[in-house]
Write a structure and sequence with these properties.
This protein has about 290 residues and is α/β, with parallel strands linked by helices. The protein is built from nine helices and ten strands. The strands form two sheets. It has an eight-stranded mixed β-sheet with strand order 1-2-6-5-7-8-9-10, sandwiched between helices. It has a two-stranded antiparallel sheet with strand order 3-4. Helix 1 links the parallel strand 5 and strand 6. Helix 1 packs across helix 9, helix 2 packs across helix 3 and helix 4 packs antiparallel against helix 6. The chain is globular.
Amino acid sequence: PRLVFVTLGDCTKLFYRMYRPHGRYIRERPQAPGEAGTTHGVEAEPPVVVAIHGYAGNHTSWLPVLESLEEHGVSTLVFDLRGHGLSAKPRAWREYSFERFTADFLELLAQLHVSRAIVLGYSAGGAIALSAALRTPQVIERLVLISANHRNPMRYWNLGYLTRPGKAALHLAAWLVGWYHRRTYNFADIRTLSGYWHSVYRGLTSMPLAVNLRCLATMGELDLSAQLSAIAQPTLIVRSLHDPLVTAREADEMVRRMPHAKLMNLDVGGHWLLTRHAGRIYAIIREFLDEPLP
């Protein structure tokens, strides 16, 4: 694997990890009418499996799944969102929005010349994956959404009226703590963490608190419900029956509106399916990837 950074157009540096198996991918091109000779070998690069982590996390949350895929010769790419992990952490609040995260992701794919992608999104990363699929359907061929929202979850708790004051409170809190900026931040390897509160603490100390609060505020802006019908890519939605953040009502709405989506409910875990049940998530993803495209 290559462990490097990419510099975006606004000079923000994103950490990424990319794996491509050795060798070239060859398919046979049939002989054209009137062309002498036999079939020709033409390089055919398979899609890259690209993973997006959630808020207060980093790329390590996906490594158990990706490393298992790599053992079967699958090309993979994972990165840290701006403000997270090893990526740069801009302080301006306007640097954090779903639109910005989506633009970063698409610029990363373009700079790395990824023209075919299967995108895995966990938690807030799933919303970024949906937004990217809407903008570049010619690049993104499939989606796997783990514990992911497509809309402000408070709408499904009948607490939508709290969205505006909640966002205002988060932005105010971010402004109040914005003065605090450490020289360095801890790097949390999600694979080694155990226990909910320990994981929360390590995640919070791996990024500026103001950034974390601003990211949480973006959930109040999330609403892709009117655009779901335009997502034609085959999509697998995986949620826990015990997930308080992704309700059954929201998951059913996603499947109903997306023409090629299917839902898998798991009777394990909660919102932390990816980090607590990586082996099972890998098996589910592997089976989905082996299915032929419609």
